[in-house]
Design brief:
This protein has 252 residues and is an alpha/beta fold. The chain is built from eight helices and twelve strands. The strands form three sheets. Strands 4-1-5-12-6 form a five-stranded mixed β-sheet. Helix 4 links the parallel strand 8 and strand 9. The longest helix is centred in the N-terminal third of the chain and has 18 residues. It starts with a helix and ends with a helix. The N terminus is likely disordered.
């Protein structure tokens, strides 16, 4: 009987390893550009609206969260290639690709876009005609189909920057000629984090060009069905209890 023991032990360990892997969630985080939705400090100190919601979902559950942080384009490439099993991030139907393929049953947040410019040479924005011969500043990796026709026509110039600090520097350096297009929540959060004076900026609604829309949790298209059902059930509980609203309020 003893001569079979190592084999039995090996099988037991193998099965245990599989069980652990089956209980793991692989959560993908966008590096540096996604605050306040995803915030990473000191490599493994994670927070943010989406991250806190994901944590709340799996609190006191049988699931462990594995964090994977990458620049946006790299993250998308990895997810398009399949990613780690049972991955989760956030997305929206209008984004297309893996961030739209398999979404949570209910949204977690409603997104509004704004146009940010310097108040040293303010201008009123009503339509893209008001941006004629001006420069629209955008973060690397974030594309907006609604803006593409204006860039291609040459009526509006596109300028890409690596982060929020660079965007704020550009519009302060070139007042009246530049404006930054971004989500309202991310703009206000990053202005606050950088101790910027809000009175130095004009922040105008941009919904005439990019309509408001909801964002959701985005899942691995091959995610285990029981796991996805668990997530959706917990998400509805958090929404009903007001816990999601409380998480959002922590960042504004």
């Amino acid at each position: 009987m003893n001569k079979f023991f190592p084999i039995a032990t090996a099988l037991t360990l193998s099965c245990s390893s599989f069980a652990i892997n089956a209980e793991s969630i692989n959560y993908y985080v966008i590096a540096k550009q996604a605050s306040p939705f995803q915030i990473e400090k000191d490599n493994n100190n994670h927070s943010g609206i989406v991250t806190d919601i994901v944590r709340a979902i799996f609190k006191d559950s049988q699931y462990d969260i594995n964090y994977h942080t990458y620049p946006f384009n790299r993250m998308i490439s990895l997810l398009e290639a399949g990613g780690k099993p049972n991955w989760i991030t956030y997305g929206s139907p209008g984004w297309g690709g893996v961030q739209a393929e398999n979404l949570s049953d209910i949204p977690i947040y409603n997104v509004k876009h704004v146009l940010v410019s310097s108040n040293k040479d303010p201008f009123e924005f009503n339509s893209m005609q008001d941006m004629s011969d001006r420069v629209v500043v955008l973060l690397h990796g974030f594309d907006y189909p609604q803006l593409r026709p204006y860039f291609e026509s040459g009526n509006v110039e596109e300028l890409r920057v690596k982060d929020y600090s660079a965007a704020f520097r550009v519009i302060k350096k070139l007042p009246g000629d530049t404006a930054f297009v971004e989500m309202e929540s991310r703009v206000k959060y990053n202005l606050s984090q950088q101790n910027q004076n809000l009175s130095q900026y004009e922040i105008q609604p941009f919904s005439a060009v990019i309509p408001d829309y909801p964002i959701y949790l985005a899942f691995d298209p091959k995610m285990d069905k029981n796991m996805q059902s668990f997530i959706n059930s917990k998400l509805k509980e958090l929404k009903t209890s007001g816990a999601i609203d409380d998480i959002v309020k922590n960042y504004f």
